């Protein structure tokens, strides 16, 4: 089922989700560096990566919302999974926004304030793993955002030639 928000058949939501996922995981890795070394440089890097993740998540979520309302069939199991995927990811984004706010002062770089920020990052990464699995269920099990037509590549392209040959054979003509 082709995604409503796409460029040349490529689903924008699926393309854009790599950015916040990567940025949020990287922010957690830099939290670990900060934990190990205590250098505020790593703390600051984690903050900026987290902020970038939040901004790109909002863009990805916009296209995910378009696909939810225009592509996922109402009343289907896929719709239920997509709802859970979206609501949980919205919760993850809100949690990262709170984490950013919490970390905005240098006081959050130490003591109990730091451990809350670190715990939120850990929960965020774990939640991303689950919501990513839900997204995978939508794509691989329910075929949401998947272009189910054969590839029509340029002449000389193996996939394009195979598709044309199969099409010609189905109409009783040789390739």
**Unreliably modeled segments:** none
Largest sheet: 2 strands, antiparallel
The overall pLDDT average reads 87
- General shape: elongated
Number of helices in the DSSP assignment? 6
The count of β-strands is 2
Order of helices and strands: EEHHHHHH
End-to-end separation in angstroms reads 28 Å
Structure report:
The protein has 175 residues and is mainly α. It is built from six helices and two strands, in the order ββαααααα. It has a two-stranded antiparallel ribbon. Strand 1 and strand 2 form a beta hairpin. Helix 2 runs antiparallel to helix 5. The chain starts with 5 loop residues before the first strand and ends in a 5-residue tail after the last helix.
